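tool_call: predict_structure(chain=1)
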Amino acid sequence: MTERVRVRRLPEKAQTDRDSLHAVLDAATVAHIGIVDHDQPFVLPMACARDADRLLLHGSTGSRLMRLMLDGAPACATVAIIDGLVLARSAFNSSMNYRSAMVLGVARIVPDPLEALRLLTEHLLPGRWDTLRPPTRKELAATQVLELPLDEWSVKVSAGPPEDEPEDLDAPVWAGVVPITHTLGAPIPAPDLRFDLPPPPLS
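tool_result:
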């Protein structure tokens, strides 16, 4: 861990093992990518997937974000997964349970963009890629796939019940954790679906 990514606020929540980083990134579907263009910061959400020690990102070849990263602009990728609302007896001590990661680096073109797109698709819904028609040359030409090496990163995890002040414990206020779960809902068929097909399996 470098000084740039050292967790300064609540350092006891920092996780320094690579398995923790992989676990957070594997649970995420969206990363927020920050770059600077002419002294103006921009942060944009992008679908993401981890493959070994790289974070895969894709977007339009015409997007400013992809062009800047291709030109070597330093990037910052962050993901955050909210696991619960931590309700204390005071607003000041209320918080959230979460898992978060930050990755700094310079993105580069993936050597096999079609395989990277398959990995991204499979991360979002396993088993989906083999049911789809293959991408056309035009679609592939319009899509840029980049990888951000997992070389410089930090992970922060917050879990557990609220930590109230001792003098607040007698206050007649409910305290505890309200879990937040992330689940897929029942599939809704497209209105122009022409075949009587089962929805994709969700597990």
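agent: The first strand starts at residue 14 and ends at 15. Proceeding to next step.
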